[in-house]
Write a structure and sequence with these properties.
Two copies of one chain form a homodimer. Chain A is α+β, with helices and mostly antiparallel strands. Chain A is built from eight helices and 19 strands. Chain A folds into two domains: 160 residues, D-amino Acid Aminotransferase, Chain A, domain 1, CATH 3.30.470; 166 residues, D-amino Acid Aminotransferase, Chain A, domain 2. In chain A, 23% of the residues lie in helices and 30% in strands. In chain A, helix 2 packs across helix 3.
């Protein structure tokens, strides 16, 4: 395995107040850098003081959006260990994104090793409060300066770390979600299955309009028929109808969430039927009218589980479980966050100790 | 109008050989920068030596692709003038892109003034050979360091200049195009009408696969039914069938090209019927079988007119005009490049003197 050069900064930064950590606003003392060119491949892995990077104005990432990323978390446990949650899945997905955007693949094992090394260097930054963690952002950008539209020849992989607070400071809070009927996030044959920068640019306007109307997120429908549910903002989504849990199948425009995968495995182990299939808003509305729509929740790295209290669709208000957190949502949240922080036995061997 | 601060570099760069100018590889001595924050709005317009820019690793453009751009050209005329071609249209479209991506709008007149000032500073860089020009790349990137997915609060607008050669060094050459049936570029409700960085990232893999199969470009079909023609690579497309010229209507997923608009106006003035409407590959194939498919050409800032000699669709080869340049394609190319370089009277008042 390649050696990682480590340059420790002399003047460590002031750490932010652990009780008021806004998501993705504070960054640790160091970052990991790794360069790619056609001659040398991926080379020069190094940990350096966190600070500005220098790019040519013609760097292709700034013009043609050739950029992919991942999101992961490290947790402090009560007994002083640091745990990652299924980090191999993120490394696999990073390479899936790379292949879709024609970015050279990375050595998954080595990048995971580099992330662990970086976390060790900045381990004092991992917060310890309930619900807090160290958010890990690996990303790859095309750095070659050229205005031709094609895959770049030069790239940089970076890993930055950000201490983050509990997603819901007052415990789990159900969110109100607008079902989007004008904008699209992705379509089959597009970039929807990749964690590509451009997918998020496409979502900003719909999110803003939803927020202005009093909703915290957007539920995306399929771009073809505008009938079938795809995903919520930056989360996957699950519906509990009459005891069965249903989540949209990975149809070529949905991101394959690591939390989504974990939820399916947990529920199956618990003997609850999970269906991965197309599910239409008509079916959800009908279940609501029949009083069989029991719970709705989003899943993702940031919030883990995000209970949905209301869906607003086509001028119709769908209130779920009287706007309260469902029993299963709470149980899934407690189990996954328990495993992540070492409070619940990790029988599925999901965690990796740093 | 705001004052533009100008810092001239002391050591001017060596200019590249005008006979071997690759597209978007060489950049002039200076660039224009303009910053935005919520308090000051757009501020501090300045022309500085061309060189690397400094970004926070958490700059939102690198993670969520909030970036838009334009492409324009400046031409040297025989009598020593410098002409721009319909630059107001590019400024209008830049603001359309801004609105779609929630980037603060710019003062179109001021940015055009800034571009003209920059061109004047670097006017020695405008090449004079046949078919050459100075390519102008205005672009805006989200610079705020934050990992939350939302519209950024800080941006930078940059303009960089690149001397470019004739797109076809040996005169107009018909291209072979693969009709794409797996990948999608954009869909209604997405970013297809904006000149957004992410749209180009989505196109790279299809372009590579087409090139490997011997085709120089990809023809995108609508993502919904995979039946109707949308656009070619980074160009709009026109079909001449039985004397009538047909181009896909601006349906919400196609970019509104400035050259496209100019072609429609020219053809209409020449008394040729132009239809902006949905056109399916079935219709094109039928016209080919009926021997009424007379010409096909792409239009865009880079190539102006790009005659299509072959379309490969669903294992069927559609040869157009025996693979030769059509009469109308040539006439359009000569007229537009003539107007751009001051050789043909600009009766439509399309050019702007710098």
């Amino acid at each position: 395995m390649k050696d990682i050069q480590i340059s420790i900064r002399e003047d460590l930064k002031q750490k932010p107040d652990q009780d008021h950590l806004e998501f993705g606003q504070h960054f640790t003392d160091h970052m990991f850098l790794f360069d790619y060119n056609s001659e040398q491949g991926w080379h020069d892995p190094r940990i350096v003081p966190y600070g500005p990077i220098v790019l040519e104005p013609a760097a292709m990432v700034l013009h043609y959006g050739q950029a992919v990323f991942e999101g992961m978390k490290a947790f402090n446990t009560n007994n002083g260990n640091v745990l990652l949650f299924r980090p191999q899945k993120n490394m696999e997905r990073l390479n899936q994104s790379n292949r879709r955007l024609e970015i050279p693949e990375i050595d998954e094992e080595f990048i995971l090793h580099a992330i662990q090394t970086l976390i060790n260097v900045d381990k004092e930054w991992i917060p310890s409060g309930k619900g807090t963690s160290l958010y890990i952002r690996p990303f790859i950008i095309a750095t070659e300066p050229c205005l031709g539209v094609r895959a770049a020849h030069n790239y940089q992989l970076l890993v930055i770390l950000s201490p983050v607070g509990a997603y819901y400071s007052e415990g789990l809070e159900p969110v109100k979600i607008n079902v989007e009927s004008s904008y699209s996030r992705a379509v089959r044959g597009g970039l929807g299955t990749a964690k590509a920068a451009g997918n998020y640019a496409a979502s900003i306007k719909a999110q803003t309009e939803a927020k202005e109307a009093g909703y915290s997120q957007v539920l995306w429908l399929d771009a073809l028929e505008r009938k079938y549910v795809e995903e919520v903002g930056s989360m996957n989504i699950f519906f509990k109808i009459n005891g069965t849990v249903i989540t949209p199948e990975l149809n070529g425009s949905i991101l394959a969430g690591v939390t989504r995968d974990s939820i399916i495995e947990l529920l199956t182990n618990w003997g609850i039927t999970v269906e991965e299939r197309r599910i239409s808003m008509d079916e959800i509305y009908q279940a609501h009218k029949d009083h069989t729509l029991e719970e709705v929740f989003g899943t993702g790295t940031a919030a883990v589980i995000s209970p949905v209290g209301e869906l607003f669709w086509d001028d119709r208000q769908i209130i779920i479980n009287d706007g309260c957190i469902g029993e299963l949502s709470q149980q899934l949240y407690d189990t996954i966050t328990g495993i992540q922080t070492g409070m619940v036995p990790d029988t599925l061997q999901w965690t990796v100790q740093v």
